[in-house]
Automatic annotation (TrEMBL):
TM region positions: none
A GO CC annotation given for this chain: cytoplasm
SUPFAM superfamilies listed in its UniProt record: P-loop containing nucleoside triphosphate hydrolases
Single GO molecular function: GTP binding
OBG-type G domain residues: 25-91
The keyword DNA repair appears for this protein: no
The entry's keywords: Nucleotide-binding
UniProt name for this protein: OBG-type G domain-containing protein
Length: 91
């Protein structure tokens, strides 16, 4: 059996970042028809998107912004007392 090749001691190459950096997180709910995507969307956003018991009830995509509570953000605001407090949100 031949000897194994020595591993390179060089630092691994950095991966290229694809897309644009943004402070807004964008998510999507994807799944099969009639499995509860609209119900989950209504629960997360506290909206009233129609969620009926037949396939393809929701054809048009729905969008909403949801504030994301974070204890670290609240601690920073209490510690440094900024002029304004703007919480992060998912869109």
């Amino acid at each position: 059996m031949p000897p194994k090749a020595a591993k390179s001691k060089e630092a691994p190459a950095e991966r290229a970042i694809l897309g644009r950096f943004s402070s807004h997180l964008k998510i999507g709910i994807v799944g099969l028809p009639n499995v509860g995507k609209s119900t989950l969307f209504n629960t997360l956003t506290k909206l009233a998107i129609p969620a009926e018991n037949f396939p393809f009830c929701t054809i048009e995509p729905n969008e909403a912004r949801v504030n994301v509570p974070d204890e670290r953000f609240e601690w920073l605001c209490k510690s440094f007392k900024p002029k304004s407090e703007v919480c992060d949100s998912n869109s």
